[in-house]
Design brief:
- Strand 2 and strand 3 (about 25-30) form a beta hairpin.
- The protein has 2 domains: about 1-30, no CATH class; about 45-85.
- It contains 2 helices and 3 strands; from the N terminus they run E-E-E-H-H.
- It is α+β, with helices and mostly antiparallel strands and about 100 residues long.
- Helices cover about 50% and strands about 15% of the residues.
- It has helices spanning about 40-85, 95; strands at about 5-10, 15-20, 25-30.
């Protein structure tokens, strides 16, 4: 009689080797990988659509980064204008709160 036995997981088909004496899993064999695509043509089409999606996301991000400089410049100009209008007013520093 062996001290270990093998059990197949009903959910994922992984193989577990269990020791009788220790009552613990001593080895694990991962389940075989499942194919998500039925044929190579479907896989190629999925990759092409993902590629187009990545390109579109990259283009949108580049546009937003181009606008980011203008946005920061406008915020700076607005803050500068506010500081010139009220030079006596100083912003509250975190150290002043204590």
């Amino acid at each position: 009689m062996s001290d270990a036995f093998t059990v197949v997981c009903p959910c994922c088909n992984a193989k577990l080797t269990i020791d009788r004496e220790l009552q613990a899993v001593i080895a694990h064999e991962a389940p075989p990988p499942k194919r998500t695509m039925s044929d190579i043509g479907a896989a190629f089409d999925a990759l092409k659509s993902r590629s187009a999606e990545r390109e579109e996301r990259f283009r949108r991000e580049m546009e937003s980064q181009g606008q980011k400089g203008k946005l920061l410049d406008r915020k700076f100009q607005e803050g500068l204008k506010k500081a010139k209008e009220s030079p006596d007013e100083r912003p509250t520093r975190p150290i002043d709160i204590d």
